């Protein structure tokens, strides 16, 4: 989600290179995020080749921001 | 322990991975080389050619750059749209530089026409190479910082060193510009070779979407 948060959209190959995950693992993650409504998958044709673009939805961005806030809060509460 | 993802780092890594193909360097090198050749052939100063030459170079280089990105970079590392955030940063640097340049130009023109500061103009012409050298370094630092491309610092430093040497030794300006263009272009090709080796084309079956 962090990878998609910093860009507007990216394709599967780009996320694969950036996350260093296996295709199957990444695909499973993305399916779960799509089911939760956090990731939007757009299938299109570029130069007659199928292309899958992935982007965070508004709901996904809000959820990620909330996750960051909670993690920050949790870390701040930890004793020195 | 901090589980919070470093978004700046992730964003920078994504941006840098997209510009590690050397295409930017190759085309910047061609652009500089073209400019140097223009000076060498003495056509840049004539018939307003100097004014339209950058536009001609951009009009020819930009479409090739876009096609090269599509044919070389995207099949290897994928496609990414950085949106307006990345573009805004570069646009801000561009606009800032243009405004600063125009302001300096008008201020200088006004000052030289008002009070006999003609000697300043002569001084600038005499030390043109030094000014171009420091200007190039400043531009490279600005773009290198805003784009997160550290190799631009090296190019800026190289340009400054070569131009300072050229100024004191008395080397023809066009030779220096052509040498710089060639160096940047060769560095770009080296980066491209490394990029192609590091990111070989994967068959469509290898990546099950």
Overview of the structural elements:
The complex is a heterodimer of chains A (80) and B (209). Chain A has helices at residues 2-5, 12-19, 23-35, 58-77, and strands at 9-11, 39-46, 49-56. Chain A is elongated and about 55 Å long. The longest helix of chain A is centred in the C-terminal third of the chain and has 20 residues, at 58-77. With 80 residues, chain A is an alpha+beta fold. Chain A has one domain: Arc Repressor Mutant, subunit A. Helices cover 56% and strands 24% of the residues of chain A. Chain B has one domain (14-198). Helices cover 79% and strands 1% of the residues of chain B. Chain B has helices at residues 7-18, 23-40, 49-77, 83-114, 118-126, 128-147, 151-169, 173-198; one strand at residues 80-81. The two termini of chain B are 35 Å apart. Chain A binds chain B through residues 2-3, 5-18, 23-24, 27, 46-47, 50-53, 68, 71-72, 75, 78, and chain B through 1-5, 7, 10-11, 13-14, 17, 70, 77-84, 199, 202, 206-209. Strand 1 of chain A pairs antiparallel with strand 1 of chain B, so a sheet runs across the interface.
